[in-house]
């Protein structure tokens, strides 16, 4: 009984690779934009467009210099890659019942903020650190899947929301990094 599929040792190297790695030769198209998924509470997952994210850090609380007379959600100032910037407790800014445990480390997402309006023509970027309880990784969301948030979303979140989507069976709130950055620059 002969097989119509040649044995892999009888194939040329390229044909053998094509047989072993079909996804490499026939890739499925990637749909959607990348977002960084963050867990703020047990039932609140948010996403921020990866295009706004500069880096993610795991830092010790001692790396953040507290500044007196600031709002409670501002943890202080820190620096990374030669840039100094504010670090805020994102859950506290959004008035969610999140707890940043006073552990040995903070998980911080550094986003690019818009430069403040000025008379000078500067191209300096401003950064903002968002301390969150847990960074969950990246996901892809299609812009068509991001819809207006439903009424069940807390009113404190509305100024910062771009919408919501369902990813992996879970509702994910899509935050506008621009709205967060603008709220901090204007304060």
Verbal overview:
The protein is 14% helix and 39% strand. The chain has a five-stranded mixed sheet. It contains four helices and ten strands, in the order ααβββββαβββββα. It has 187 residues and is mostly beta strands. The longest helix has 10 residues, at 177-186.
Strand-pairing-aware structural class: mainly beta
How far apart are the termini?
79 Å
Shape: globular
Mean pLDDT: 82
**Extended strand count:** 10
Quote the beta fraction.
35-45%
- State the low-pLDDT regions, or none: none
Q: Tell me about the biggest sheet? A: 5 strands, mixed
Which SSEs are present, and which pair or pack?
Layout lengths: L12 H8 L1 H4 L7 E9 L2 E6 L3 E7 L14 E7 L2 E7 H4 L12 E8 L12 E7 L1 E8 L19 E7 L2 E6 L1 H10 L1
Parallel strand pairs: 2-10, 5-7
Antiparallel strand pairs: 1-2, 1-8, 3-6, 4-5, 6-7, 9-10
